[in-house]
Amino acid sequence: MNKPVKNVVILPNNYTNNQKDKFPVLYLLHGATDDYSGWIINVPILKELADKHNMIVVCPDGGYTSWYIDSPINSEMKYETYISKELITAIDKKYNTIPSKEGRAITGLSMGGHGALFLSFKHQDIWGAAGSMSGCVDIRPFPNGWDLSKRLGKYADNKEQWENNTVINLIHLLNGNLKLIIDCGYGDFFFDSNQRLHKKLLERNIAHDYIERSGRHNWEYWTNSIKYQMIFFEDYFKKNKLPLNSK
Q1: DSSP letter string over 84-108?
Q2: pLDDT by residue (tens digit) across 25-80?
Q3: How far apart are CA 156 and CA 162, in angstroms?
Q4: In what order do the strands lie in the sheet with 104-108?
Q5: Among the residues of the chain, which ranges form H helices?
Q6: How far is it, in rounded angstroms, from Cα 36 to Cα 171?
Q7: Cα atoms in the Cβ-side hemisphere of radius 13 Å centred on 22
Q8: If we measure between CA atoms, which residue out of 39, 36, 40, 27 comes closest to residue 63?
Q9: What's the rounded Cα separation, in Å, for the pair 235 and 181?
Q10: CA-CA-CA-CA torsion for 6, 223, 15, 247, nearest 10 degrees?
């Protein structure tokens, strides 16, 4: 995209520069109108969680409203390529990571929930586990929302592009190996679409953890949600019996 992109990288206390010690990485995506600093500012316990679960946490900047896609109408918006290729390569080069899907997970809130599922569904060779918190898993009901028309064109004139870039239509890409955790609060305006995604996954016999609970589209909900999702991801990493640095 020919521009610098900032990211927050949180290293657990147990992190060392010893090449023999390898750490799993969680990519954590922000929502629309936010940036790379949103998670660490609004959820300061994120550092404690990285320490507790012994993983690197990367919070990329996904642009004000990029939707983490490569926009078919704006060549300056290539966030799918940025995160799935450039950022992954840079993180694995700079830090002692486990450079395989068995050592990577991705999740996010709202637009970031869409982004995490979108990227992981399309790149199952890169991420082995993925999640969504209050994710906009179906963008089609919001043709005038959050600059979506600037990324995909107006829905009325570009229906195919919208259909091809909404998470709920990408389930056919799943091979059954991606570990999934999806949650949404009852009071969230994306609740209906999350229920529909859950039912569609069940119909396709795609294993996943799905959680409905009290809550709205706010930081109080996501502060609680990330605690459970990081447990899920740590469990995934441990089940792979990776050569992790011992605590």
Answers
A1: IIIIHHHHHHHS-B--SGGGEEEEE
A2: 999 999 998 999 999 999 999 999 999 999 999 999 998 888 898 887 788 889 99
A3: 10
A4: 7-10, 56-60, 25-29, 104-108, 129-133, 179-185, 209-213
A5: 38-42, 46-53, 79-81, 88-94, 111-122, 148-152, 159-164, 191-203, 219-239
A6: 28
A7: 17
A8: 36
A9: 12
A10: -170
Q: 3-class SS at 211?
A: strand
Structure tokens that stand for 85 in this block: 């290729």
* CATH classification code of 7-239: 3.40.50.1820
Quote the percentage of the chain above a pLDDT of 70.
96
CA distance 7 to 158: 32
Instruction: Give me the count of residues in the chain.
Output: 247
Residue ranges per structural domain of the chain: 7-239
